[in-house]
Amino acid sequence: AKQKYEKILRYLSQGQNAWNELRLSFSKDKIKLTESQLGLYINELQSYGFIEKLDARYHISDSLLAKAIK
């Protein structure tokens, strides 16, 4: 699970901010992840305050974290 959280944060830091972009990124990296699993990871990251959703796009809340993830 840790690797999937890190992947989501990395994808977001690279500008892949929409749901479909995240799903496509996991698929391109040959990482199996269901829609419900992605939703769970996104919700967890939101509840911990690591990411936020603005206008149907996800963003890392802390700019320092975003730079460190890259």
Question: What can you see in these coordinates?
Answer:
By secondary structure, the chain is mainly α. 60% of the residues lie in helices and 11% in strands. It contains four helices and two strands, in the order αααββα. Strand 1 (51-54) and strand 2 form a beta hairpin. The chain is globular, with a radius of gyration of 11 Å.
Could you list some keywords that capture this structure?
70 residues; mainly alpha; two-stranded antiparallel sheet; 4 helices; 60% helix
Structural class: mainly alpha
What's the helical proportion of residues? 55-70%
What's the alpha carbon Rg, rounded to whole Å?
11 Å
Major β-sheet annotation = 2 strands, antiparallel
- What integer is the average pLDDT? 94
Helix count from the secondary structure assignment: 4
Q: Termini separation (Å)? A: 19 Å
Shape: globular
Write the element-wise H/E pattern from the N-terminal end onward.
HHHEEH
Count of β-strands = 2
Task: Report the uncertain regions.
Answer: none
Helices, strands, pairings?
Blueprint: H1 2-13, H2 19-28, H3 35-47, E1 51-54, E2 57-60, H4 63-69
Antiparallel strand pairs: 1-2
Concise synopsis of the structure shown:
This protein has 70 residues and is mainly alpha-helical. It has helices spanning 2-13, 19-28, 35-47, 63-69; strands at 51-54, 57-60.
